[in-house]
Amino acid sequence: MPTFTREEIEHLGDLARIALTDEEITRLQGELNVIADSINKVQEVAGDDVPPTANPVPLEAYMRPDVPATPLTQAETLAGGPKTEAGMFVAPRILGSEE
Amino acid sequence: MTNEATNELVKLSAAEQAAKIKAGEVSSRELVDAHLAVIEAAEPSIKAFLKVSADVAREQADAFDNKSADEKAALPELAGVPIAIKDMIVTKGIETTAASKILEGWVPPYDATVIEKLKAAGMPILGKTNLDEFAQGSSTEHSAYQTTHNPWDTERVPGGSGGGSASAVAAFEAPLALGTDTGGSIRQPGALTGTVGVKPTYGGVSRYGAIAMASSLDQIGPVSRTVLDSALLQEIIGGNDRRDSTSIPEGPRPMAAAAREGAKRDLKGMKVGLVKELGGDGYQPGVEARFNEAVKKLEEMGAEIVEVSCPHFEYALGAYYIIMPSEVSSNLARYDGMRYGLRVMPPAGVPQTAANMMAYTREAGFGDEVKRRIILGTYALSAGYYDAWYGSAQKVRTLIIRDFHNAFEKADVLVSPTSPSTAFKFGEKMNDPLAMYMNDIATIPANLAGVPAMSIPAGLSDDGLPTGIQFIAPQQRDEVMYKPAAALEAALEEDWNGPIWKDLKAPWLDSLAK
Amino acid sequence: MAEKLMKYADATKKYDVVFGLETHVELCTKTKLFCPAEVSFGGEPNTQLTPVSLGLPGSLPVVNKTAVDYAIKLGLALHCEINEWSQFARKNYFYPDMPRDYQISQYDKPTNGNGYLDVELEDGTVFRVPIERAHIEDDAGKNTHVGGADGRIEGADHSLVDYNRAGVPLIEIVTKPIEGAGDRAPEIAGAYMRAIRDIVRALGISHARMEQGNMRADVNVSLRPSADAPYGTRSETKNVNSFRGIEKTIQYEIRRQAARLDEGKEILQETRHWDESTQTTAGGRVKSDADDYRYFPDPDLVMLHITKEHIAEMEAQMPEMPRERRNRLKSEWGLTDLQMRDILNADALDLIEETVKAGAKAAGARKWWLGELSREANAKGVSLEELPITPADVAEVEKLIAAGKLNDKLAKQTVVGVLAGEGTPDEVVKKHGYKIVEDSGAIEKAVDDALAANPDVAEKLKSGNMKPMGVIIGAVMKATRGQADAKAVTKIVMGKIKA
C-alpha cells in the first residue's frame, strides 16, 4: 500500500512541472493517501491470467494514406502564442539554474 | 415575436421546433433569437454559458433560412435548430477554455469534427457552456470562471462536469447541447437537472476536437430534454472519422427509429437486467423509489425483468481513479505556456528558465482538482508503480468488460439509478474528493467498458428534485437502449400529465413574459 | 577541464569493450507520422503544422501508412522479426520543442524486434551486429538559441522554437550490446553506420544525410575487465552526427573510461556530448529518476496490425541490398577490392552504375567519376551528385570517344562545357565544332608548315633527338584547333623525317 511522503509529492510536482506550494503539498499528501487507500484494492483481482485492456473497443489502427493536406498558416499557428518573435515561439532559456 | 410566443417556442422539444421550421411556422433565426432572449434572462441566475456566440448563431441561422427548399430537404431532421456546446469541444473562431485559466483567451483555428457536422446540418451554435475545469469534477464547481446553478433549485449544483450544458437545456436556454462523458459527465448532470444525457459507444462519435481528459474513456454525446431529440442528435454527430484512430468504422445506428418505436410503449420480448451491484445501499431513498417505480413501468410494458451480477463493478471506481488521472497527467502536459494560453514567469529569485516558467504557469493555471489528478496520475505511471497501478487497472477493465458481456447474455439492456443522490448544495462535497467521486459510482463502468449508456428523468425525489435512471446497452448497439428509454419516457409522462419540466419553476421565463 | 586519457592500445588491451548504437533515421515520407502536414525542409518557420503536429487541444494522431511500410522494409533488411501487433506508447517529458510534451514512440511492442546486420570491414572481415529493435517514433521541433556564443544552448538568453520538424517520422534502430569488437570497435561502428545509411538509401526510405541531421546516433560505451565479467557502467553520448564523430567518440570514451577505471574511479551513468571542435566528449546530465518517462500505451492510437499480406507486399518491393549489390558489381566490372573501395569512398557507386546503364563501359565510367569529376567536385566543395553533369552525359561522352568522334582532349573540353552549363555533350560538341580532323591532307599540311617554321627542331628530329617532338605536335594542334589526334601527328612526323 503506497504512502505518500512530502518528498514524494514534491518529486511528483517536479515530474509534472507544477510548482506546488508548501500548503498544497501538505493538503495533497493527506488527500492522496486517502484516495490511494481506496483504489489500492484493484490489485486484489488483477491476476496474471487477466490480459490488460488499453482501449475498450477492439479496433486495429487505420493507416492514413501519405497525402499532404493544407497546413495552418503561420499567423494561425502563432496566434495563441504567449510570446513570439520572428515567426517562432519564444522559450525562456533552457539551461541554467544560477540566477 | 411576442414574449409569450418565445416562452412557448423554447419549451418545445428540438424535434418539435424542427417540425415548426419545416412547416414554415418559424425560421431558424427566430428560434435563435428566442433562445438568445431566454439566455439573457436566465443567465444572471443560471450561469450556464461561459460564452454566448450570438453573432455566429444569427449568421448561421440566416444562412440556413436562405437555403433553397431542396437544400433544406437534404439536411437532417434537426436542421435549423440551435445548440449549445460544452466548452470542452473546440470551435473555430470561438474562444474555448475548458473552463480553465490556463486556456483563457484561446481561440481555436479549427473545428472539432462534431462541430463541422453540426454546421453541415445547419444547426446554429448558441455558445459555450460551463464545466468543471477540464471536465474534472461532478458539480461544475471546479470551473475557473463561474458556478452554474441548477434550474430546479439555484442553491444547488447541476452536477458535473457538464453542468453548463445540462442546466442550459433544463432552463430552456437551448433545446440541445453537446457534452463529454468520461465517467458520467453527461449522464450525472442529466439526472440532477431532469434532462436526457447520452454517452454513446466509445468510438461512436469522433473525439477529434474534444479536448482530451482521459482519452480511452472520453466520449462526446447529446444532451436534450427528450429521448428522441438525443437520438436525432446522435445520428448527426456520430459516424466514422478518419481523424480519430479510435473511431468505429461503421456509421451511426438507427437510433431515432428505435426511439420512435419505443414511444409505442410495447416492450414485449425485451429482457431488462437489474445490475445487482448497482442497487441497494448508498442511494437516497427518493432516488431508489423512483427507480423501482420506473422498473415496474418497464415490466408493465411487457419487459421481462432479470437480475444480473457484475461482480467486478466494485473495483470499477478504483480502476477509474488510476486510469483517468494517468491519462489526464499526460493529456494535460501540453499546457506548458509555450504555444497557447497562459504563461507565468517565475517570481524574482527563482531562475527564469523554461522549466520554471512551465512549472509556475501550470501552478497558476490549473485548479486544485486538476492538480490533484495530475499528481495522482504522474504517480500511477511512474517507474516502480506502473504494474501495480496502471497495469492492474487495465486488467480490471478487462474483467468489467467480461462482466458486461456475461450480463448481456442474460439481458438486452441493463438499468440502474444514474446517481446515488439528487442535486447537492454548493460546497457540500468540495472538500471531500472521495465523496465527490462516489457520484460517479453507477456511471463509471460504462466508460471503462466503452458501452453506450444514457440517463433519462425518472421523476422527482421526495425533495422535489429530479432523479435519473440509466440504461446501458451492448457495445456498438446504441439503438438498443433508445427503445426502452423512449417507452419509459412516454409512460412516465402520461403519469405526470406532461414532461417532467412542467413542474419546473422558471422565473426567468416569467420575467421574459412580462 | 581536460580528462585523463589512457593510450588507446593499452586501454583495449587491458579492458573488454562493449558498445551499442541507437541510430535515428528520419524517413522521407511526404507527410508527418501522425498528421498530413507536408514534410519539407527550409520552409518558413511554423508553416508546416496542422493542429495535430502543433499539439493543439483536441487534436488526435492518425498513423501514416507509408511510414509503417518503410519500417517494415527496414525490418526486412535488418532480418528483424516483424511483430504482427505493435503499439505506440507515450514517452512523457517536458521540453519546449515538444508540442504535446510527450513523444509518441514504441516501447514494449515495437514493430521490429531481434535482427542483425552483417557489416563488412576494410579488410574484408564480416562482423555481425545484433539488432535489438527498430521502432517508429516522431521527431520534435527545433530550438534556436539566442544571446549565447555561437548559438549554443549554454549561456543563451532565450530560445526560438520552430515546430516544423515536429512530427516528422523517425525510425530508431537499437543494437544489442556489441561484444567482441575489441580495438576494432570504432571501425565496426563506422562501418555499421555506413551500412545503415546505404541500406536506407537503397530502400528509398530516407535521404540519410548525416550532415543535415537525417541520421544521428546515440553512442553507448562501457568497459569491463574481461569478456566474461558483467557489463560495466556505460556512458551515453547523444546525437553524434558524423561517421567520423561516432568513431572518435568510441575511441575517446574507451580511453577516458580506461583512465578512470585505472585510477579506481567510478564511471558515471550519464549522457555526454561529442564536441567536434575539441574532439572530446563532455559530461552532461547524470541520469537520475528525472528520466522517469512514464511510458504507457497511447490511448489515442489503437494497436497497429501488420498482416502477413502487408509484409509480403513490402517484401516484393525490396531492392537488392547494398552489400550484395557491391559484390555483384565488383565482379561484373572486374574490379579489385581496392578499386571498389575507392569507388565507395568517393560515394560514386550509384553514379558509375547509372553511367554504365546508360551505355558506357565500366572502366570509362569509373575513370571520369573518380578522376576529372572528383577533382572538380573537390575544388568546388560539393558532392559528385551535386555536379551539373548526369551519368547520361558521361555515358554520351564515352560513346563519342568510342565512336572515334572525340579524342581525350576534346572529351575533357566537352565535359568542361557540360559542367559550365553549355548543354548536353552533343550540344557542346556542336557549339564548339569539336571533331577529330581525319583529313590527313590537312594534318600533313600542318606538319609541313610546322617543320618549315621550326627548322632547328626539324634538324634535331632528323638526327634522332625526339625530345622537341612536342613543339611540332603543339603547333599542329594549334593549327587544327586541337582536333588532330596526337598519335596520328607523331606518326606523320616520323614518316616525314625518315623520308
From TrEMBL, chain A:
InterPro entries: Asp/Glu-ADT_sf_sub_c, GatC. It is an enzyme of class 6 (ligase). Its EC number is 6.3.5.-. Coiled coil: none annotated. Keywords: ATP-binding, Ligase, Nucleotide-binding, Protein biosynthesis, Transferase. It holds the Pfam family GatC. Allows the formation of correctly charged Asn-tRNA(Asn) or Gln-tRNA(Gln) through the transamidation of misacylated Asp-tRNA(Asn) or Glu-tRNA(Gln) in organisms which lack either or both of asparaginyl-tRNA or glutaminyl-tRNA synthetases. The reaction takes place in the presence of glutamine and ATP through an activated phospho-Asp-tRNA(Asn) or phospho-Glu-tRNA(Gln). Belongs to the GatC family. Heterotrimer of A, B and C subunits. This is Aspartyl/glutamyl-tRNA(Asn/Gln) amidotransferase subunit C.
Automatic annotation (TrEMBL), chain B:
InterPro entries: Amidase, Amidase_CS, Amidase_dom, AS_sf, GatA. Pfam families: Amidase. The active site is at residues 86, 161, 185. Residues 30-479 form the Amidase domain. It is an enzyme of class 6 (ligase). PROSITE patterns: AMIDASES. Its EC number is 6.3.5.7. It catalyses: L-glutamyl-tRNA(Gln) + L-glutamine + ATP + H2O = L-glutaminyl-tRNA(Gln) + L-glutamate + ADP + phosphate + H(+). Gene3D superfamilies: Amidase signature (AS) domain. Keywords: ATP-binding, Ligase, Nucleotide-binding, Protein biosynthesis, Transferase. SUPFAM superfamilies: Amidase signature (AS) enzymes. GO terms for cellular component: glutamyl-tRNA(Gln) amidotransferase complex. GO terms for biological process: translation. One of its GO terms (molecular function) is ATP binding. Belongs to the amidase family. GatA subfamily. Allows the formation of correctly charged Gln-tRNA(Gln) through the transamidation of misacylated Glu-tRNA(Gln) in organisms which lack glutaminyl-tRNA synthetase. The reaction takes place in the presence of glutamine and ATP through an activated gamma-phospho-Glu-tRNA(Gln). Heterotrimer of A, B and C subunits. HAMAP family: GatA. This is Glutamyl-tRNA(Gln) amidotransferase subunit A. It comes from Bifidobacterium leontopitheci. The gene is gatA.
UniProtKB/TrEMBL annotation, chain C:
Allows the formation of correctly charged Asn-tRNA(Asn) or Gln-tRNA(Gln) through the transamidation of misacylated Asp-tRNA(Asn) or Glu-tRNA(Gln) in organisms which lack either or both of asparaginyl-tRNA or glutaminyl-tRNA synthetases. The reaction takes place in the presence of glutamine and ATP through an activated phospho-Asp-tRNA(Asn) or phospho-Glu-tRNA(Gln). It is an enzyme of class 6 (ligase). Residues 350-497 form the Asn/Gln amidotransferase domain. It comes from Bifidobacterium leontopitheci. Keywords: ATP-binding, Ligase, Nucleotide-binding, Protein biosynthesis, Transferase. Its EC number is 6.3.5.-. One of its GO terms (biological process) is translation. InterPro entries: Asn/Gln-tRNA_amidoTrfase_suB/E, Asn/Gln-tRNA_Trfase_suB/E_cat, Asn/Gln_amidotransferase, Asn/Gln_tRNA_amidoTrase-B-like, GatB, GatB_Yqey_C_2, Gln-tRNA_amidoTrfase_suB_CS, Gln_synth/guanido_kin_cat_dom. GO terms for molecular function: ATP binding; glutaminyl-tRNA synthase (glutamine-hydrolyzing) activity; transferase activity. This is Aspartyl/glutamyl-tRNA(Asn/Gln) amidotransferase subunit B. Heterotrimer of A, B and C subunits. Belongs to the GatB/GatE family. GatB subfamily. It catalyses: L-glutamyl-tRNA(Gln) + L-glutamine + ATP + H2O = L-glutaminyl-tRNA(Gln) + L-glutamate + ADP + phosphate + H(+); L-aspartyl-tRNA(Asn) + L-glutamine + ATP + H2O = L-asparaginyl-tRNA(Asn) + L-glutamate + ADP + phosphate + 2 H(+).
